């Protein structure tokens, strides 16, 4: 793989349009970022759970604030990588004109990396999958292909993001978001189909990156950018190198910022957070600065900022020093796992404590259980109703709730199920709960 081809400005749906030489305030990749910022799927992230239940008295991160922070870290990673490359080769812009845009590409990809995640965090993904593996959805296996069944039984938010960005929904622009090929490829962490994914100890196939419906879409993107075929899986591909920076930005943010939220919610004490973050602060003596802050929240903010800065510099340096391996597709671990051994060990400590104390905190478990039940119940209502050829009165009313943009003229079972999943997976936590209550008769819509 080579940077000249990987950083293509070609747009999805506008492949034959020449890039204008008109002077503009934005580059093609900055346009990607702006299109995402102003989009409805991005705005809906403000009411989707990140880890903790949506805020009451105490503010915690939701999917939108998380995505904005990941985009900020991603931009820094990309910009720092370019600066390192530029320092080593002052004439690099002549060889790779768009290398200076890496920060903008990564930030746009980071902004969109969670667009396909359903309500209630990973519990929403599990609820959709379990409907087909353990629930009433099992009866549909006989009506779909093996590839399609793999999609349904392993619902993946990352794959759904590519669909959200490229699929021609009814009444919407048939070109989707018309993002650049470089940005689209940079969100696909696992460039293979569901039936090829879920391979242990394989960084390219740990999960999967596109539904059966988007296979042709991704192959077109891969061909344009020159992505290498995966030697261990001829049907799939090796990652676009910038995926590693997007992945690193996400890893940095949720590992560090979840600690900040846990402190706000009094799940972890200040002393516990300091003990976890201080070793990541680059060896800088922060004692005087920390002691000068009476507010423990401000101390955590300082520690968070310094820790993120250390991780950004470390990941960008690894990425720059190992260019040959990234371009060859032979780098087989996340960037954060390739840092100094002491940093890696501390990050693993944070991960272990996060699992034990944060992700299994009572409020987190409660929202996961409730979300699981809500999502499963919605599928139990919508999927059978949409699939019935002879619909009863209630079935027709249920189907009428699905917005026109999601409906399909295709008649096969998978396409109809995908229609319902497109609708349900796009719901916010609040909308899903409200709709669940109304369908179950728990609450009645106001007549006002």
Automatic annotation (TrEMBL):
InterPro entries: dGTP_triP_hydro_central_sf, dGTP_triphosphohydrolase_C, dGTPase, dGTPase-like, HD/PDEase_dom, HD_domain, PHydrolase_assoc_dom. One of its GO terms (molecular function) is dGTPase activity. Signal peptide: none annotated. SMART domains: HDc (SM00471). Residues 59-264 form the HD/PDEase domain. Keywords: Hydrolase. This is Deoxyguanosinetriphosphate triphosphohydrolase. It comes from Sphingobacterium haloxyli.
